[in-house]
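User: My instructor asked us to take a sequence, write out its structure as tokens, and then describe one feature of it. I'm not sure where to start. Here is the sequence I was given:
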Amino acid sequence: MNSAEHLWRDLFDVADEMKNLHSDSKRISLLFQVTVSQLKMVRNVYELTRVSENGVPLKLLARNLGTTAAAASEMVDVLVRKKILERKQDPADRRQVQIRLIPELHAHFVQVEERFTVCTEAFLQTLSPAEQQCYRECTAKFRSFIFSYSETLEK
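Assistant: Let's start with the prediction itself. The structure tokens for your sequence are:
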């Protein structure tokens, strides 16, 4: 096995183990029964609600997903029926509808992130300061490269 293959296999193993850290929720198992596009929407809703806890307007969600508002709305409807997302009126503008994860699922994602943070902090404590810096720099470069590479494949 060459070093590139070894690296991506290790990363996939880590990703699989991280999934195991939060596979205890019955609600999460629903996420494995959605399409890749729907899963991407769930992730976007979660990330965007970091800025606005009230939820995300459909137009912003559609823009982030690179799709039309109509297509995003259909996907939201499916995820609302699956009890993964919910629509709520914006308290500031009752004509606006905000989309967010159901509270139980949002709380679960927060808890999972906390577990990942604790696990990562424990790992970083096993490294010297120089190794920590090297790890952060290499990880950032690899992440940037993967995103750039992926964009070239989409064109």
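For the description part of your assignment, you could build on this observation: The two ends are 30 Å apart (CA to CA). Try explaining in your own words what that tells you about the chain.
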